[in-house]
Amino acid sequence: MDxxxxxxxxxxxxxxxxxxxxxxxxxxxxxxxxxxxxxxERATKIRNMIDGIAQVSVRSPLELVQD
Length: 67
Hints:
Blueprint: H1 23-38, H2 40-51, H3 59-65
Helix pairs in contact: 1-2, 2-3
């Protein structure tokens, strides 16, 4: 270590409307978090539900995350 450092500035963090996630980033995040715990089938259902979130009731997401 020579005491130097690098700095970067990001106007809008990833996930903000001005810097949205791309489709492959959304899939990677969902599957990396859900699949190890709940399996690929449930991760796929959650991803699909998120895709149509405007058309589902509040009950649908809760049913997918409860055991």
